[in-house]
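Supplementary Methods S3. Input chains for the assembly prediction are listed below.
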Amino acid sequence: MRIVMFARVPRWYSFKQDRLAKRLQADGHEIISIVVEQTKTLASLREWRHKYGLRVMMQKVASKLTRRADMSSSSQPQNTQSADKRPPCNAPVHFVASHNSDECVEVVKRLQPEVIVLRGCGIVKKQVLAVPTLGTINPHYAVLPAYRGMETTEWSVLHGDPCAVSVHWVAEAVDAGGVITSRLINVESGDAIGSLREKSAVIAAELLAEALNKIQSGAARPRFMPVVEGRQYFVMHPRLRQLAEMRLR
Amino acid sequence: MATAAKKPLGTLIRAGLRVAHPSVLRVLIQDSLRRPSQTESSRVHLDGAIAWICHAQDVCGGRGVSAGYSFVHGWFPPYPETTGYIIPTLYDYGHLTGNKTYFDRARRMADWETEIQLPSGAVMGGVYRGLGHEAHPVVFNTGQVVLGWCRAYSETGDTRYLSAAQRAGDWLLSVQSEDGAWRVTGPEVQTLVHAYDARTAWSLLEIDALAKSETYAAAARRNLDWTLAQQHENGWYENNAFFTDSKWSLPLTHTIAYVMEGFIESWRLTGVRRYFDAAHKTGEKLMRIFELRRYLAGEFDKSWKTSAAYSCLTGDAQVARVWLQLFRETKDTRFLSSALKLSDFVKASQNLRSLHPGVRGGVKGSQPIFGKYQSYTYVNWGAKFLADTLMLEEKLMNEFEQAVRRGERLGPGDIADEVSTPSTAVGET
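Predicted structure tokens for the full assembly:
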């Protein structure tokens, strides 16, 4: 299938070893472009620090640097992440000012994708969603429709509810499209919000691949909730986030 | 509040001298640069707000509480309306700290209110400038003082307070329109009829709860039902502004919160769910606005649009408290999170280390201080509502933390059906 991925990262970010992109390519999908809404480095670092915590963020950076070093030296991989033998992602990257800009709509129209895969970006507007022939899908880190919106891993943990990843069709309302596939996350002793988010990212790559295969085989067709169900969550106050972390300990 | 200066030149000179104070200058510079103060624990901010209120009472002879401290006019005379609703705040704080001096302060306020009660039973509008000055009866102000008298009676058993509240209630009944609204002109506002009189209806229900007189409750219900009819489908309330001039004619978050408070407290006393639902509808709309815009402007038009570049801090503190009440009833933790954020915003506007007693611990009308609502003034009702919010916040946060520690499920409760549909749990790969 012809796929366009949307991402929001700093300009220096490389997708060559991107877990999701490599997985989709390995499954035979054609990533015709990665459309990037460029963010400032400091803002991104702050966001990652908030999402993952310092420890997981440093692990991710170290892992990325190791993979780069492995690529350049072609030496034997040293860890499980770099043991990924799949070829690097070679999709072209387009930079846009905003995913909702006219420029972005033009770029995507030119690319004629069947599906847009959202890989961490803001709310995408109707004019963009209308372009792909089959639809737009998004991984969401919680059970839907109960937990729509932001920081849903944190909210699920705070409430003592199961953590999950869901892949769903994207509708105009936030996280309101039908769920294509979902999976619970095993919360283990020693987990923190950051490590749960990292687990979610790994599972999200698998579920997106699974969802695209379902779409390709005709087993999943776009469907949208007639009424927006569940609650839309927003950024959690730090005191509540501390309580969520406390629940995990 | 009437603040017209009689001697413009003298006022100007005194204002100039006040602004030259380093603490005042610091506030002006800080607000011009939009730099918030550092926040401390809620308890420290609560203590600061209460200390400011006590000082505002002391500068007026230790009875009524000064309306506020203005960079232009200095300390205002005592304000009957807000002194009335500060009474329950001081009782609550006294119970929290176990310090009986706050009970004494509250009682002095209640006594002062009975002494200046108008012969009709009503409470005057505006600040109290002493005997011999004109005093106009005002519906809303009367209701707010009734809340103070009722609390003073509950705390002390002194029937003078209940009797004062009943006389005030009788006056409110005598001037109520057939449809339940109150249409009595007052000196402080231009508008005639107010949705925010839902708080006045609440005060009648408080009298009813103590005096067991159905007439008060019936009048309160008539007003609350009239107020329900003022609510638009999107949660906004008609007839809820202080002024009619086009640029001042929009409801403030302060008056919007007044309506929600009236509804919630009336629901608490009557059990009539539609009152709670009305407050919930508005509260949820405001929560979405605040979370999506990450800021709560001071005023909103009927489409919830705003061009206000200031936040009404009193309204913020009130809205945060309403969200806490909505959380307590619905267990919707989004309200708790939003309330914590909004009270953080108010706390960050409060200066706890200033050398100036008019500034230290006080709450400004607007953030920044030169915003439209009560410009350049620290208002006693801002400190009151912040104190109320922080007391409830700490209580609910303690309860919530205990529930988390006990491992209780605290979510929306509809998750069980969702998780059975998709595939099974899978661990780290």
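Chain B has 15 helices and seven strands. Residues 39 and 344 of chain B are 7 Å apart (CA to CA).
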